[in-house]
Automatic annotation (TrEMBL):
Residues 50-212 form the Thioredoxin domain. It comes from Micromonospora sp. CCTCC AA 2012012. The keyword Oxidoreductase does not apply. Residues 1-36 form the signal peptide. Keywords: Signal. This is Redoxin domain-containing protein. PANTHER family: THIOL:DISULFIDE INTERCHANGE PROTEIN DSBE, THIOREDOXIN-LIKE PROTEIN HI_1115. GO terms for molecular function: antioxidant activity; oxidoreductase activity.
Length: 212
């Protein structure tokens, strides 16, 4: 019998080999893109560069808005016994001497019919507005009628300083004033440092000293 020979293997054209290689490479690439980190494996985050870190403000780096500093609390001056009184002014306003605590104060006791008081009234009218905030001068009118007291204030232009209506004599008795005209000076600590008569020149000098 004649020997049967097998047919030689058919060669694959080079063009098909190139196409197959491309397909295999594409499949491998797709498989590698689909693979992520294994479950449970830590995900590493790249550290920010110094430039990036400085550009991102942190909570501690952000300055809190600044406002006007709070003013310190105002401590009221202690009210001395000499200034713990109140009265009505000749125009009907309530006056509290406690508001004068911490300042030197001059109380002027006068009567509307008093010639000496009239001679001093011009000086009081001149200096009282000037020292209103540093050495208040407070008139205490007594020993007369309210109408006459108001006329006295108007005549001598004393409306720029408080004039108390003490027709009942409560303040005159409180400070033991027995004659007019009397100036009673209370220092910053509430002590009576002078009580008696002062002429215009002496009054001006004394008030200036207290203000300084």
């Amino acid at each position: 019998m004649p020997r049967r020979t097998s047919a030689p293997a058919r060669a694959v054209p080079p063009r098909r080999l190139g196409t197959a290689a491309v397909l295999v490479a594409a499949l491998l690439g797709a498989a590698s893109c689909a693979v992520g980190p294994e479950p449970g494996s830590p995900v590493r985050v790249a550290a920010a560069s110094p430039a990036t870190a400085s550009a991102t403000p942190t909570a501690s780096a952000v300055a809190a808005p600044t406002g006007t500093p709070a003013a310190p609390p105002v401590v009221p001056a202690r009210v001395p016994e000499t200034l713990t009184f109140s009265a009505k002014t000749l125009d009907g306003t309530t006056f509290s001497a406690a508001r004068l605590a911490g300042k030197p104060v001059v109380l002027w006791f006068w009567a509307p019919w008093c010639a000496t008081c009239a001679s001093q009234a011009w000086t009081v009218a001149e200096i009282a507005p000037k020292y209103r905030d540093t050495v208040p001068i407070i008139g205490v009118a007594g020993l007369g009628e309210q109408k006459a007291m108001k006329e006295f204030v108007a005549e001598f232009d004393l409306g720029g300083t408080p004039q108390l209506d003490d027709r009942a004599g409560a303040l005159w008795r409180r400070f033991e004033v027995v004659e007019q005209s009397t100036f009673l000076i209370i220092d910053r600590d509430g002590r009576v440092v002078q009580q008696g008569f002062l002429d215009g020149e002496s009054l001006s000098r004394r008030v200036a000293e207290l203000a300084g």
